[in-house]
Amino acid sequence: MAMAEQAVSTPRNPAASRTGKAAGWRTFYRNRWFYLMMVPGLAYYALFHYAPMAGTLIAFQDFNLMKGIWGSPWVGWDNFRIIFDNPEFWPLIRNTLLISLYKIVGNLIPDVLLALMLNEVRHRWFKSLVQTITYGPYFLSWVIVYGLVFSFLSPGSGLISTFVRDAGWGQIDLMTNQDFFRPMLVLTEIWKTTGFGAIIYLAALASINQELYEAAVVDGAGRWRQLWHVTLPGIRDVFVLMLILKVGGILDAGFDQVFIFLNARVYEVGDIVDTWVYRYGFERLEFGVAAAMGVFKSVVGLIFVLGANKLAKKVGGNGLW
Amino acid sequence: MSRILHRTKPDKAADTLIYAVLALFALSALFPLYYVFIVSVTPYAEVMKNGGFVIWPKQFTLEAYREIFASPRIPQALRITAFITVVGTALNLAVTTLLAYPLSKKSLAGRNFVLMALVFTMIFSGGMIPLYIVVRGLGLYDTVWALIIPGMVSTFNLLIVKTYFENLPAEVEEAARVDGCGDLGTLVRIVLPLSAPIMATIGLFYGVNHWNEYFKGIFYLSDKTLMPMQVVLRSMIQSPNVSTELSLNSLALNALPPETIKMAVVVVATLPLLVIYPFLQKYFVKGALLGSVKG
């Protein structure tokens, strides 16, 4: 990488030692094509990332689409007062954190287990077949997963509902059942992402020094002792890093999944910050209040991510950046 | 493989268990898809007679598919989705590459500032409401471009490509420059041909995301005729009235149970992915690993 740096910089910056504006402009001009290439991409980031960041100012407005950001009245911290005084606020936070937590706990173990089991397989064709099949669902949309769940659980015709009814256990409707909503989110997440989540652990397993196993065998370690003393320590760092990163994103309970599975009967256990923002903004047109909640979530989320990254560095990983 | 070494004591029972659990894992990944497909091609009377469970139907029927494709809604939605998948992915690749290439030059003035600004968008966002107002303000609301432009570059993919460019041998590019190639010429004629695997990988990620597009549809569109496939699929699954959803009112459709129609629409929305998946699967693995190594 140092080579690349040198190769590009040496012939391009003969005037590097010369200082002053003129030299700066010359370098800029020499690289003009590079800067031109970046224009569409930078325009995208300016318009669709940085302009909305500035647009969070509407959290301090009684925003009205017709009047726009210039014409809407400023209301100070009113919108924030509205969200914190709202009786829905704490249930929302609770739902968001619990759903995230359940998903973190429910997913980490299957990811690792699948990787460990695949690692024990000696027939290559079997290993790659299972891998190919199990990470397929990752690429299906949540809408399709919803459709699949519907085919099992729809009260009138779902496979499981029909079975339960035919067995004489009565009519069930799990898709609108409050007790089942969070487990359903965890189960569908496991179904969709486990194959994909195992990949990173497989990579970690592949990089374990084989001599460690040989030494363990010489010491008379059986399969389980090898697992305990060599394999698990080999993936511990990746495991801890993944855990920390997931905790850092704990305010993101998975908007796409939750939104698609959510219905009015399960709001009490399933409404999360993002779905609330959607309803307040797009359905009630309370843009200022919705934006205030969005800002609250972004700021707290940022603190979590930065904290998680710091922690990841402390435990010996590289962190995200 | 030296791995055989650590298996000096074969443990038949454990091996059998592992193979069995893995097979079960794979089956549970496949079964829902298989089941939905079977329901969509089996006459409903047969499904009901067997308590909803048919391993292999005695009679096949493509009635549901015929009705779906006779309706205006599904072909329309498929056209929109195909359009955003093809055009969107092409634009994604172009803009991402053009931004990643200069950023791979470590001596470029301003590079670090730009990189920091881009990475910051991965951890902080203005939220969905301000973005919606921007999309409206730019006049994209209720146009097909609202499905494409607001997701033009994925920072994640951008960093992957940037890292890949950084690791290309510098000599090749130097040779091109000596031969009189400009920066753009070098990118198009030298760098891109060397980057086919990474382009396939991120192109695939972008493409799948377009095919699965749902939220931009419900955020930025009110015109039903512009809705992508996933939006139509979700409202169909939830609706008690399939013929309104399809904007089709035929005798044949009314004679079909809504469940069969719904399952057939799930299959139509899934099939293209399933068909290409086995061919492109190796790129997905590559992408997943690249993503886990930091940009």
From TrEMBL, chain A:
Record field: transmembrane: 33-51, 97-118, 139-164, 184-206, 287-308
Keyword terms: Cell membrane, Membrane, Transmembrane, Transmembrane helix, Transport
Subcellular location: Cell membrane
InterPro entries, A to Z: MetI-like, MetI-like_sf, UgpAE/MalFG_permease
Membrane topology according to the record: Multi-pass membrane protein
Residue stretches making up the ABC transmembrane type-1 domain: 93-308
Family matches, as Pfam families: BPD_transp_1
GO CC entries: plasma membrane
CDD domains membership: TM_PBP2 (cd06261)
Keyword match Membrane: yes
One of the GO BP terms on file: transmembrane transport
Coiled coil: none
SUPFAM superfamilies found in the cross-reference section: MetI-like
Sequence similarity: Belongs to the binding-protein-dependent transport system permease family.
Name recorded for this polypeptide: Putative aldouronate transport system permease protein
From TrEMBL, chain B:
InterPro entries, A to Z: MetI-like, MetI-like_sf
Domain ABC transmembrane type-1: 78-280
Gene Ontology cellular-component annotations: plasma membrane
Pfam families, sorted: BPD_transp_1 (PF00528)
UniProt topology in membrane: Multi-pass membrane protein
Keywords: Cell membrane, Membrane, Transmembrane, Transmembrane helix, Transport
GO BP terms: transmembrane transport
Entry's localization field: Cell membrane
Main subcellular localisation: membrane
Domain of life: Bacteria
SUPFAM superfamilies associated with the record: MetI-like (SSF161098)
Transmembrane segments: 16-38, 80-101, 113-133, 145-165, 186-206, 261-280
Family named by the database record: Belongs to the binding-protein-dependent transport system permease family.
PANTHER family the record matches: ABC TRANSPORTER PERMEASE PROTEIN MG189-RELATED-RELATED (PTHR43744), POLYGALACTURONAN_RHAMNOGALACTURONAN TRANSPORT SYSTEM PERMEASE PROTEIN YTCP (PTHR43744:SF9)
Protein known as: Putative aldouronate transport system permease protein
Native source organism of the sequence: Paenibacillus methanolicus
